[in-house]
């Protein structure tokens, strides 16, 4: 009888441990980013920085001047340009990671084909209390260029750090054949 009771307790303990293990979140989930989620019309604030998306432009051709030389980039898909206003709260920092999550759920990081374009947000040093306007440029397939979410963080793959998700409003996306970026913006 004692042996049967011991086996029953061991079996129940094993079931309880298996249940606890299956319901425990993974390490990546526990130490992942601290997300702030909102709409494009709002200024979204995390504990380290805030962002306001002013304008979204879709274009087939991207044009800008780099080191006095005109540059023109065409795309098989579309260029998505986000005009943003950023502000840091406590420390001097840069926004090193930005991506657009397309309709398929895939992430598209900022395009290096647009490096050297004026007013890129990734090149700006943000100072506490001072807002800074800039742009973020992405290249993505046409079929993914709707139902988009802009994801911005201080560092790539943030762990226990702020990450802001801005749901972009499709009705405010301006479509152009050619987007020219100058020192005064888009």
How would you summarize the topology of this molecule?
Elements: H1 2-23, H2 27-30, E1 34-39, E2 44-45, E3 49-66, E4 69-88, E5 97-101, E6 107-109, E7 131-140, E8 149-153, E9 162-167, E10 173-181
Parallel strand pairs: 1-9, 3-10
Antiparallel strand pairs: 2-3, 3-4, 4-7, 5-6, 5-8, 8-9
Keywords: Signal
Protein name: DUF4352 domain-containing protein
InterPro entries: Immunoprotect_excell_Ig-like
Give a verbal description of the structure.
The chain is mostly beta strands and 186 residues long. Helices cover 14% and strands 45% of the residues. It has one domain: Immunoglobulin-like, CATH 2.60.40. A hairpin with a 5-residue loop joins strand 5 and strand 6. The protein is elongated.
Report the β-strand fraction as a percent range: over 45%
Quickly give the CATH architecture.
Sandwich
Q: How are the strands of the largest sheet arranged?
A: 1-9-8-5-6
Q: What's the number of extended β-strand segments?
A: 10
Would you give the CATH topology?
Immunoglobulin-like
The run of helices and strands is HHEEEEEEEEEE
The DSSP helix count reads 2
The main pleated sheet reads as:
5 strands, mixed
Global shape: elongated
Given helix and strand content, the structural type is: mainly beta
Average pLDDT metric: 92
The CATH first-level class comes to Mainly Beta
Give the N-to-C terminal Cα separation. Answer: 82 Å
Helix content: 10-25%
Unreliable stretches: none
Radius of gyration: 23 Å
Number of domains: 1
